[in-house]
Amino acid sequence: MTASLTPRRDRIRRALELLRNETTDQFDDVVGFTAHEFVDPELAQRERDLIFGSVPSIVAHSSEIAHPYDFITVAMPRNNIIVVRQKDGGVKAFVNLCRHRGALLEKEEKGRCRFFSCPYHRWSYDPDGSLRMITRDNTFGTIERKKYGLVEIPCEERHGLVWVVDNAQAKIDVAAWLGPEMDEILAGYGIDKLVCARVGTFDEPTNWKIMQDAFLDGYHIQYAHPNTAGKVIHTNVMAFEDFGRHCRFIAPRKSIDRWLEEDPGDTPLDPYVTETHFLLPNSTLLRQPDHFQLLTFRPDQRDPAKSRMEMRLMVPTVEDSGLTEEHWNHLWDKNMDILISVLHDEDFPILRDSQRGMASADAGDMLLGRNEVANQVFRREIKKLLADGSVADGATVNS
């Protein structure tokens, strides 16, 4: 079901109608999958290469590297990278490795520096990746310095987000990857005017696809979160739009129930819903009434049963919020604490056990329902990327 950009007002009212009819948007068929997709080392390597090594994925909000020489380090599925704000305001990414003897160049998760200095022999590099200095170069020997700058990774900043393709040989075009619909949607949100107020990082013994699936799922809320999200958001009601690679859906909050028996007329219903966007390959962007949450999921560099989740709160600045700095910090600390508590107490235990279950030799076939629409998009598009990459490589698809 491919959709054009339906006005938000109409989509919210469609969600309300679905709720009245005790149903949800659905795909045509139930689809199957198998446990090996979450435990197979060969498939995990193909995902690193054919997915993360081929298409753009989000690594940060722009405000995390707001000033020249600000940097972050990221463990991507194929490379350890440094992402650094340039003097001219642009952003570049590099493999986090000294070209002399392969030492890790930067261990800090974030910081600011005018050059990167290797801890092993003190070779140094400018923020643009060029080789700045070879220590005791009079004894080292002659090399062509331009060849031994940092290896650059394709990187682009768009819509207030920093994207990379985890492959030095690739190219990046975020607008083309998003497609006209999702590019327009993100452009309209003004995410570039927000700041990343809080970041949480979680290393979990769980395949990245199990993690991503959980945060596209409106079917589990009542059962996995009975005392938290289940009290706030309706279960299994999603007004859904499919944009091919990406999708979005509106889920009604229980506060909308006042309008079940009454026509809302021209009353804005925006405060009564949460809107979720899936950005292929590995991001969930949640639009809340007063902020955005960005969830990203990356596979481990070696183990298919491990992944890293990052959660970001992207919010109005202190000045734009109209709050005092103390109140602003208290608000987002409280939000983050609640989210982390739900993750640790409710989501992660289920997902860890799911990974354990997938390791069973006789797990049997499993299913995604017609109602699990965003999960079906995720699976459909991941399979396409693996198939497309395998055709390009002359390989055989075995997933």
From TrEMBL:
Keyword set includes NAD: yes
Cofactor: Fe cation
Domain of life: Bacteria
Gene Ontology molecular functions: 2 iron, 2 sulfur cluster binding; iron ion binding; monooxygenase activity; oxidoreductase activity, acting on paired donors, with incorporation or reduction of molecular oxygen
Keywords: 2Fe-2S, Iron, Iron-sulfur, Metal-binding, NAD, Oxidoreductase
One Pfam family from the record: Ring_hydroxyl_A
UniProt keyword Iron-sulfur present: yes
The protein's name in its UniProt record: Rieske domain protein
